[in-house]
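[Discussion] Sanity-checking designs against the backbone

I'm trying to build intuition for which residues belong where. Below is a structure token string of 153 positions. I'd appreciate it if someone posts a full sequence so I can compare it with mine line by line.
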């Protein structure tokens, strides 16, 4: 009988879900940002794709448009506010055009790890997730090296 997976995490690094299906083995963690804004958290998924025989490490995070500057100052007049808004719209239009013709724009997302235990839990979650996926799919490993050494990224 298969034993249920028990993660050791539960505070700033939280185990979210785990599954092992005929097509993939996955384990999910939520890594909390120390600034406590939930929108900064990172979801990390270890996914072992059984058809491709590859272990993927996927990060999911809300990222923001990095040129979304629209500072509002106490002494701003209505004209200042309108100029700021037009500036934001102009930058969005320029980058939307760049995205259309080049396929990329610069975006960013902040994430804060400030205490040592939080960092260690992040590292330990990486090890726990890796071990879970690889223990469920042992034929892929020979002497701790992947049989098909090339990554698919
Ligand atoms: Zn944050």
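Best answer:
Here's mine. Compare freely.
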């Amino acid at each position: 009988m298969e034993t249920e997976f028990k993660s050791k995490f539960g505070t700033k690094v939280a185990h979210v879900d785990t599954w092992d299906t005929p097509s993939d083995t996955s384990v999910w963690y939520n890594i909390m940002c120390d600034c406590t804004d939930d929108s900064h958290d990172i979801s990390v998924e270890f996914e072992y794709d059984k058809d491709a025989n590859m272990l993927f490490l996927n990060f999911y995070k809300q990222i923001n448009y990095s040129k979304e500057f629209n500072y509002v100052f106490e002494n701003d007049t209505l004209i200042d506010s309108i100029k700021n808004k037009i500036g934001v719209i102009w930058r969005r239009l320029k980058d939307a055009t760049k995205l259309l013709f080049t396929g990329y724009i610069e975006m960013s997302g902040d994430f804060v790890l400030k205490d040592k235990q939080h960092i260690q839990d992040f590292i330990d979650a990486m090890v726990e997730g890796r071990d879970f996926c690889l223990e469920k799919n042992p034929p892929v490993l020979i002497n701790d090296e992947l049989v098909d050494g090339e990554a698919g990224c």
